[in-house]
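@channel anyone free to eyeball this complex?
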Amino acid sequence: MPGVVVNDEQVITVGEDSRVTTVTTYAVRFLTRAGFGYARAAAAYDTASGGKVTEIRAWLIRPDGSVKKYGKDHVVDRIADADNLYDESRVKYIDATRDAEVGAVFGFQTTTAEPRPWFPQAEWWFQASLPALSSRFTLVLPAGWRASGTVYNAAKVEPTVSGNSYTWEMRSLARVEDEPASPSVRSLAAHLAVKYGPPAASSLSAGAFRSFDTWADVSRWYTELADPQAAPDDAVALKARELTAGAKTELEKIRAVGRYVQNLQYVSIQVGIGGWRPHAATQVFAKQYGDCKDKATLMRAMLRALKVESYAVLIYSGDRTRVREEWVSPGQFNHCILAVRVSEETRAASVVQHPTLGRLLIFDATDPSTPVGDLPDHEQGSFALVAAGDGGALLRMPVTAPEENMVSREVEAGLAADGSLTATLRLRSVGQSAADARRMFKGLAPADYTRVVERWVSRGAAGARFSKIEPADAHAEGRFALDVEFTAAAYAQSMQNRLLVFNPAVLARGSSVQLSGAATRKYPVVLESNAFSETVRFKLPAGFDVDEVPDPVKIDSEFGSYTASYEVKDGQLLYTRKFVQRAATIPADKYGDVRAFFGRVRASEESPVVLARK
Amino acid sequence: MKSHFPRLRPGAFGALVCLAALAYLAPPPASSARGEKDWKPVDPAEIALGAPTVEKDADAEALFWEVKVADEADGGDPRTVLRHYVRIKIFNERGRESQSKVDILAPKVGSRETKISDIAGRTIKPDGTVVELKKEDIFERTVVKASGVKVKAKSFALPGVEPGSIIEYRWREVRGDQISFYDRFDFSRDIPVRVVKYYVKPIQLRGFPYGMRVQTFNGRNTPFVKEKDGYYSTMAENVPAFREEPYMPPEYSVRPWMLVYYSEDRNLEPARFWKEYGREVYEESRAEMKVGDEVKRKAAELVADAPTPDEKIKRLFEFCRSQIKNVYDDANGMTAEQRAKAKENKSPADTLKRGVGTGRDIDMLFAALAVAAGFDARLVNLADRGDTFFDASFPDAYFIRTYDIAVKVGDQWRFYDPASSYVPFGMLRWQEEGQQALLSDPKDPVFVVTPLSGPEKSVERRSGKFKLAEDGALEGDVRIEYTGHLAVDLKEYYDDESPAEREQAIVEKFKARITGAEITEARMENVSDPVKPLVYAFHVRIPGYAQRTGKRLFLQPAFFQKGLGARFPVATRRHEVYFHYPWSEEDRVQFELPEGYGLDNAESPGALNGGELSKYEPTAGVSKDGRTLVYTRKFYFGQGGGRAALLFPLASYPSLKNYFDQVNKQDAHTLVLKQGATAAAAPPPSN
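replying in thread with the prediction:
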């Protein structure tokens, strides 16, 4: 264990004037050098709202009892996210990692002040990647105000209430370990979500604070922020009409606009309302760049010009288990996409039925690899908020079927008596499998893409030489194709000039869940939806018969299936395999099934064929 | 760790290009700013350009790139003023993504401050319309601020950029409190450049005794020509993009660039420069090697009963390495505070007394002890071939800032570096081996070549003892030892990590290679031991390691190569192939076979002979009782020494690739086991 958190505490005090002061206190004892990375104090603040870090101090208590203090000379102040072209969020920190020692205790206290919070809400994670002896969150409110909180991923915790002070505390907390293919640590850790506010009759209740009781409240708030920005001007409308001039159907119109907006450059400039408000569509159009919410806004403006209704959608990108329906807060989201109201004529995998808004086509205008009609896999199945004023609601995003993300491969292979291989590969992919392939294809210069393909093929067929590498992207249709022709000397291994041994799975399957070698795990396994099928037709060398082929395989499970078969006919070996993986979040107690499934698939894919000289 | 900046001082002699050092204060050019607010005219052919001209398939191409570098004395305060201007044609979305977002950093460290001003930019769309970058779209932000350091940035995104657009932008950069002092200026970018032009202007300061020098490398730039306003210019055309590649030579021996600096105008030929420089180094280093009574006593004590000169040197070396703490060693246990408080050693006696010092202090103490023990010891200066390849025809000490100690044993000079914690006795850091080193001397300094350790010095020695189950599962213990440069690299990497982190690193490394491997009892040994080999050890179980069919088991005996791809999988490359040092590998893997199984038509993997340069020798055999299969593999590369054994021109890439492909193929060799088969292979190797 790298270390243990001795104390982890935050006190938020809300003043009568709604000013918020946050005091965070933390102490960690280092048990090994691996824990030294936790010898950091950090306090985030937002310059746009007038936020300030009024105090940041730290101490290192060495095993011999001596103390090193860290003050303003040690403070580093930096922008929070260097990837943004501009961002008003900053962080002050003290880094004591180079002074840390095993057995030492590092502690810090930070105080931040904000004129008022963006929302009268707070979240506190009791658990993190180190175990903690104690973790406590206190909210001090003005007289008459009330708070209510819910603890997730742990048994219910009642606050200790003293006057207007509410304290939630947990003790002896285990650490949350990072496991491959699991939900994020923040989705798994015990955490508290609190909302607070003045009495309903207070003048503050309607003014300074924007409180959210229902998802419709969040919808109204974001609609007010985003909708005015999505007003088209003449230039936007003209462009929208120009883009859709040849479109015959509703879907074709949406595709034309979607493709245009996706192709704009991604540039993030976070200003105002904590970065929530998008830039005006007219500005985005003039500059030809923007971030996720800017792109969604421009697309909405163009659709509005075409009399097509659409809504901003707030979502968490990267972990479909993250957003909780019970916690009504915009703070749960990190990404903005959009929902387009479509008629019955529009059929696509990303269409969902909204209880009041009807059929909605969900689209991510930021991901340039996922066309209209599909949705990035890390957003599928997640809760997202459709911001449609009073009619908005939290909605489960669609999940595409494995077959809609299929990779199909046909390999024609000729095997010679000396073991050399001549092969042609015809690969066709759709849905998110095509999006993955497209992302790589578009992200690399042609020569670099060729090298990637060469590396991939060479892993299965060492020393391969290539006569053709021909990719073809059909973005609008969501398809991607790759044709490859290659030869590989001594692909099959000759033994005493009598046997030829080779793996019929010439090329690696590609996407596969990476599981640790551990026999057990603590957290669920998250699987995405995809499918793969392959036929490999080997023309066998003259003078050889098939001596042995692996047994056919058929595996079925609740989250996927796999089949492999071998057929010998007319001097040819036909090898077929099919793999289906369904989107699922599988509980840890079923991890053994997952591991066994993928272990059997892997064993099958590595099984060789033996030819014997007649 | 050795400090790489022992003594920076202006070089003393003439360089390839000496730009006039003006001994008077010239009036500022009246027209310097005139016309600079205007954009250069855009050729309609540039707007119409549909494809790159320098490199096929480039995402974007710099049509021109111009930098004016002027060293000035502004009211007596020196500063370097740079005016940058670049025009780029965008061919596709990748080009737009990579080129149209711009961050210009302006650091301030102490009193040295860089200021950015006069930013202007615009986009010329494919239809010829122009979109100007507005002032309000240029964001100034403080990237980071800390005690004594502040880094500001001016950031912008060019507006309205689409494939086919031309973007251009320019800015003024003022580097305060300095003039060009060994500054490196690149001629290549991440995209190809049609024309790159540098203007340089020496400082014009009355009484300033140094002349500006410019040396270019790896390029085909034009000779410098005199321009107006005191500038001199050079240009290069059709410069390919610079891109990194695995196994490539050091960046600055590949990409075109120039070095700008000042030195006295002594105009010496290289041979004479090095003679004079070697004498100066000798004189300065004698003082640093001063032998006092304490040093004499310690030397006598250390070598008292040493039977040979070699043994004497070894004892002095080990003493300096193990008993004197290097303040700059990140794993020495010192805190930043302790490092900051460490006193400066003024003599070897100070270093000896305090038991702590800089890398140079340690090397100098070693030299002093050697002198006290009766040896001739000298400081040698040499280049770091991890940075660039050294060329002695460039008469300046800039590239030979690294140093070692040469000790004469018998009639031979030998080279030592006790300040480097993990470099074995008799070796140097790989960056310093096989290098020309200037041996300081009071009369006749000469370049000598440091030895290049052979492949037997840097060995990866691996052993595994496994039991193979009938279902193909493999289980057993693994031990891997690293020596020489292989060990140095790994020790430097892991020495400040915790045992848990090291264990995790082992687990991750092997799991990435063999899917499904269950690794336990992982440990790394001797990480901070300067002498012993670094050791990885672990227990592993791999379900399905051998593939099972109805009647056979298929086993890849090269356990340590399973899952490794080819070293050179791609058909073509951009740069020469460069290996840092020769190395060798020795494997011995023992498999206890499942009951009743024997080899079926077994055939040993084939050996490969790469001449003197390399050899690959695998063997496989079974024990007399047929129960144990033993696989051995010996491989070395880089034998024969010298640059030719490490650096391979592009023309030889196909044959080099083919050789490593053959190794990879033989490593993937499969042995077939069959129930009831008779073991017919050769007996197991004896070692």
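from a first look: Chain A has three domains: 3-205, 215-398, 403-613.
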